Structures are given as structure tokens and as C-alpha cells.
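Regression test case RT-17, inverse folding.

Input:
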């Protein structure tokens, strides 16, 4: 019975070559409403006053919380193998994109 339940819960996830290459981002802008979280991934280049959103992920609050927990777990595992990740100095650049205030 357990194998049958496990087989029913498996998902075949396809990763195309284009997506597998990934998109680099060094800034995440997170906004939310009652119904969803929006995470915009941006690549900010030094000395350039403008940057474009490279990718946007929209998810439910429940999935955002699962993502948060997964990130916490993975950072802990990474640090146990590679040492503590040191925070870099906070940038003093004001990030005003014309939308609501966000945190990264």
C-alpha cells in the first residue's frame, strides 16, 4: 500500500536546456498581497542606474512559506559543509522602482 501511495504522489519534472542554464540575479525584490507573493529577480550591474527584472515568480503565501523553510534548511546544510556565509556590506543605493517598498 505504501508503494502505491508513493507512486501516485510522484511528479515527472521536465527541465528544458534553456531553463537549465539558469538566470543570474543578485537582487530579489519581494512584494505581497493577501493572496500572493511576488518575487522579482534582478541583475544589478555596478555603476549602472537601471536594471531589468530577469525573472518573476508568483506564489501563494503557503508556497512562499514552504520556500522560506526550504531555503533555511538548505543554507544550514550548505554552511555545515562549507562554513558560515558572511553577509556583505549593505548597499547604500536607494532602490526605488516605483512600486511598494520591498525587502530582499
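Golden output:
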Amino acid at each position: 500500500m505504501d508503494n502505491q501511495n508513493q507512486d501516485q504522489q510522484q511528479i515527472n519534472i521536465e527541465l528544458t536546456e534553456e531553463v537549465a542554464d539558469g538566470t543570474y540575479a543578485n537582487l530579489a525584490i519581494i512584494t505581497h498581497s493577501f493572496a500572493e507573493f511576488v518575487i522579482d529577480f534582478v541583475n544589478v550591474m555596478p555603476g549602472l542606474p537601471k536594471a531589468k527584472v530577469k525573472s518573476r515568480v508568483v506564489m501563494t503565501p503557503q508556497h512562499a512559506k514552504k520556500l522560506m523553510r526550504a531555503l533555511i534548511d538548505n543554507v544550514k546544510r550548505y554552511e555545515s559543509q562549507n562554513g558560515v556565509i558572511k553577509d556583505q556590506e549593505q548597499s547604500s543605493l536607494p532602490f526605488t522602482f516605483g512600486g511598494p517598498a520591498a525587502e530582499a
